[in-house]
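May I ask for a protein sequence together with how it folds?
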Amino acid sequence: MEEMKNDNIGEESIAEKVTDAGEFAGYDDEAEYNRELRERAEREERDRQLPPDPDAILEVRHLKKYFVLKKNLLGKPLTTLKAVDDVSFTVKAGETLGIVGESGCGKTTMGRTVLKLHQPTGGQIFFQGKEIAGYKSKEMRPLRTKMQIVFQDPYSSLPPRSTVGDILSEPVKVHNIVPPDKVKDYVLKLMEQCGLRDYYYERYPHEFSGGQRQRICIARALAVNPELVICDEPVSALDVSIQAQIINLLKRLQKERKLTYIFISHDLSVVKYISDKIGLMYLGSMVEFGNKKEIFDDPMHPYTVALFSAVPNPDPDARSEHIILKGDIPSPVNPPKGCKFHTRCSKAMEICKHIAPEYKEYGEGHFVACHYCEQGHKNV
């Protein structure tokens, strides 16, 4: 990996040219930021001409979702929150992509934007080779059976005045999954697959525990036979023992139904268990992406290393160095210039304060955005 990193450092690399504070005296950060925006737009336009990845069920290129917080009298945006800012990744059929990051980093917004629950501000979304970023609600309707979501809170995501049978039957009827006379048998079989008893059919959500409600949410998502399911922190509101049951249920259903997951979570141990690929998000951007083994065996970005250091070690004799991140996450309304992570990074150099690092590949499928890695340094 060390040799691979060094091979990626070009002779004209900015990181080699300017590294000390003296060379940044009087540096025009605003001009640099505008240059970065132009280069990003040019790169996005070049990538727009490329065909979709034939092996990927989902490919996301330069995805953006901005929320306008304040406008002037003419309707021009004055304040914008960049919830998702230039995120790219691919997921192959049958894989599980784990998305990790602190609260407020844009994980959930990214997942909802991929499903077109939020209209993307920019970028491309390819699902099964078709670009759907510009689809209207009517065009998305046929795809709703192929793309589903399991929400974080099983308490608020179920209608309290509907029985379990009604909740699971409605999408089946709306999308004509089976003939009307076979809907109940179809729902009862689905309930059995998700670990729900048949006599739950006439019960209401308030009569169930958190784990049972999440099983109902999973059954509702699978009722229309989707191919891609976004799991938005599906076990974070559950007890640890119930978490294990739900995770094992998701893995079993994935194998039986050949599902593809995007699994959003804070829990690194859960992500490590269920995922094939992992993406680390910080302040709306993807800072590291790669296969699970490479990410856990050789984390490269300082943010990734800091997150991994916080995972408890079950060995009482093992010594581990905990990296404490300084300060709070900056506001996505006014992110820092240069690298967004430099205000909290122990490896930050002067260049990090002024120039945003390039998101580049250091190994096969292992992408990192970091000046420290760009200069050939290892974090672990």
Summary: The chain has 13 helices and twelve strands. The chain has a mean pLDDT of 87.
